[in-house]
Amino acid sequence: MAVRPNVIFIIADDHRYNAIRATGDNTVVTPALDALANAGTVMASTHIVGGVDGAVCVPCRACVHTGTHIFQATESQAIGNRAGTHVIRSGAATMPAWFRAHGYYTHAIGKWHNDTASFTAGFCGGDTLLFGGMSDHRQVPVFDYDPEGRYPQEARRVETTFSTELFTGKAIDFLERHDSNEPFFLYLAYTSPHDPRTAPEPYASMYDPAQIPLPPSFMDRHPFDNGEMAIRDEKLAALPRTEEETKRHIADYYAMITHMDHHIGKLMEALAASGKADNTLIVYTADHGLSVGQHGLFGKQNMYDHSIRVPWLLKGPEVPAARRVDELVYQFDIFPTLCDLTGIEPPPNIEGKSMNALIRGEGGQGRESLYSLYKDIQRTVKDDRWKLIRYRRSHLTGQGTNCEQLFDLQNDPWETVNLADDPRFRPEASRLQNELANWMHRVGDLYADRFL
């Protein structure tokens, strides 16, 4: 048995924080994730920091990999500079590269949506690698691992096994093959439950749309132009949103999640059969959340909690069982937390901080406030009760609205009642406005002047 625990890091695509039975959704069926939550700790208020790309998964993954906020994580966060916004900053220590440098065999399966150079530096091996953002789940364009980092288009092949089954199968193969005493870091990145939401049977028919409850924040359209009303994600359903069509989308979303959960269960069975389960840390998270009809939106290009909050389930040696932590944390805190749990000093000068003491109930603290951004049009800051969202008309597209929202999350967790114009709550709004300015200056937000 390895002296240091193994790590299995699972990251899904578009899985919002509460679309798991164990974290609050009583409709979706997720026995494997529920078991993971019950045997470990749920970080119930984990947030992304966002970025300036409509493909929000790109900056979010860069932050996960580097343990820091987006203005440190990538070469550029200038809107439109896709060559720079996709590339992890030169010299940044990525999570796989850091574990590799500290004696771990690092192995990747599935989606890596950043540059191939950072991928090659991080991983000793891999299989069925997807360097794009999305695909038909039965037409998955993948590469074999190349230790030299050469991934020309002519080397790409298309796999017809459903993506979730494909990636899980390769992860199980790895667990069955790995017989070294060297600890491993297995990175498993699903493209589920991202659309096209085409789960195979029996999962596709598992949820009757007529029986799906609508979330309290369902609206037939967003109350104003948030600056990103015509992006691809928002065209997946007609306007105005109808209850019938929204329920169908939610049913398909749940089907993808339950199908993925089934295969995560198979992976856990294989881990148990390998004899390594007792010495393996398991992380489950997602790159970001998703609206699926909430607030009249369908995408993730917004600052509501359904889009900026993600799952973080953690199980393994020295991780308390059946524990829920509600304090505010960032998703990029996962990297230094894993370092702490494996006895590795985290990289210097990163924004992330270990939450190990908080997880173990040893006096640790979460964050007093959190900040998130989207392009040059949306910024938010929140504390343990109050949340401010500030919107601006884009100086590049002319889209958007100059306005604010203020929510009392204690009494309005679905963010349906805007208190920004109520004079009774001016002290809270003013306090959060100052906190927002502090955050923008702290992280070097390129577009801070538009929001001050």
From TrEMBL:
Transmembrane segments: none annotated. InterPro entries: Alkaline_phosphatase_core_sf, Sulfatase, Sulfatase_CS, Sulfatase_N. Pfam families: Sulfatase. GO terms for molecular function: arylsulfatase activity; metal ion binding. Keywords: Calcium, Hydrolase, Metal-binding. It comes from the Bacteria. Residues 5-344 form the Sulfatase N-terminal domain. CDD domains: sulfatase_like. Belongs to the sulfatase family. PANTHER family: ARYLSULFATASE, ARYLSULFATASE FAMILY MEMBER. This is DUF4976 domain-containing protein. The lineage of its organism: Bacteria, Bacillati, Bacillota, Bacilli, Bacillales.
